[in-house]
Design a protein that fits this description.
367 residues, alpha+beta, Phosphorylase Kinase, domain 1, Transferase(Phosphotransferase), domain 1, 2 domains, 11 helices, 13 strands, 35% helix, disordered N terminus, disordered C terminus
Length: 367
């Protein structure tokens, strides 16, 4: 059954409204919880595929995501509410964000030949920086730093709601610094175009790897093009590990020099030259906005989203109302699907590092 098709039934105490996404290790539903006196809550429910129940690694990864994300309470992080076991099938519920992921926002903008304005760019990136700093600083119940590193900061894991909210999702491959960053010798998880140089080289990661990834997101939003491209995963990882990202001012001489400097610092190949914390990057972005007299407004972002996705918003809201009323309906498939895909073989989300340091210099190309 494809994502978006009408689905009914229950998972644990949750009534399933519809399935909206299918990933490599789990499927995502819109569901609701009901209680006395008319209480009702709409949630996103993520369930591990039954065929992974016998694989301890997948089960451990799935439960780790739920437990870690449930400890994070921040306005720019999608909240996890509950974790359960439905006849042996693990699931957890989280905040349902009615909107689009940033990947689809960027695609829609490029499809129109347009650009995202600076005020929206700074608002989105500064709020994700705030979310990252909170996660990086999070302590356990004993007051010890968890040392969280998200490891997969990318447009598909940033949700923009139709009311202008910005949320970071998918801590499925996040790790504390005390845990292994390489799950098997030479294999890394994450989306390669947003990996840091040290992540491509299989080194131990800290918060500065997430800062680099956010720098890639900022670079791509500001220039409306992809930063890192390659013929294959190995070539792409080689380029990231061995080359400096071009400064925006080198490509667009009229690009704001102050913003270019922020991007260059976030994207420093040597992590000791990057921002030490995501909060430092956030403060520089907000200072740039003040100097430029940019209005960082969620109302303005909501208006932009309403214009960009007018037809989709109408059909999504109608489908949600129909489903809540008990009428079988199909959800538009364009909605956000924050699923942490965990492939079983090398793809764009996993790469082997064999020969990374010895291969020839890749040839640049555009995409």
């Amino acid at each position: 059954m494809a994502a978006g098709e009408g689905v009914r039934g229950r998972i644990g105490k949750y009534e399933i409204i519809n399935r909206i996404g299918v990933g490599g290790m789990a499927e995502l539903y819109v569901a609701r919880s009901r209680a006395a006196h008319g209480f009702e809550k709409i949630v996103a429910l993520k369930r591990l595929f039954p065929h992974f129940l016998g694989d301890d690694d997948f089960v451990r990864m799935f439960l780790h995501e739920a437990r870690l994300a449930a400890q994070l309470h921040h306005p720019n992080i999608a909240q996890v509410y509950d974790i359960g076991d439905d006849d042996g099938a693990y699931f957890f519920t989280m905040e349902y964000v009615l909107g689009q992921d940033l990947r689809r926002v960027m695609r829609a903008i490029r499809g129109r030949g347009g650009w995202l304005t600076l005020d929206h760019i700074i608002l989105i990136v500064s709020q994700i920086a705030a979310a990252l700093h909170y996660a990086h600083e999070k302590e356990d119940s004993a007051g010890r730093p968890l040392g969280v590193v998200h490891r997969d900061v990318s447009p598909s894991n940033i949700l923009i709601s139709y009311d202008g909210g910005v949320k970071l999702v998918d801590f499925g491959i996040a790790r504390a610094t005390s845990r292994s960053d390489v799950t098997q010798a030479g294999i890394l998880k994450g989306k390669i175009p947003y990996m840091s140089p040290e992540q491509c080289q299989g080194k131990t990661l800290d918060r500065r790897s997430d800062i680099y990834a956010l720098g890639v997101v900022l670079w791509e939003l500001a220039l409306c093009r992809d930063l890192w491209v390659g013929e294959n995963d190995i070539e792409l990882a080689q380029r990231i590990a061995s080359q400096d990202a071009p400064a925006p001012t080198d490509l667009l001489p009229k690009f704001p020099a102050e913003l270019s400097a922020i991007i260059v610092k976030a994207l420093a190949r040597d992590r000791d030259r990057r921002y030490a914390t995501a909060q430092e990057m956030q403060l520089d972005l907000e200072e740039f906005a003040r100097e430029r007299k940019l209005a960082l407004s969620s109302v303005g972002l909501a208006s932009f989203m309403s214009d960009l996705f007018a037809d989709v918003i109408k059909s999504q809201k109608a489908a949600l109302q129909d489903a809540k009323a008990g009428r079988r309906t199909a959800f538009p498939t364009l909605g956000p699907m924050p699923l942490g895909e965990v492939p079983t073989r090398p793809t764009d989300a996993t790469t082997t590092l064999s020969g990374l340091d010895s291969a020839e210099e890749p040839r640049p190309r555009s995409r």
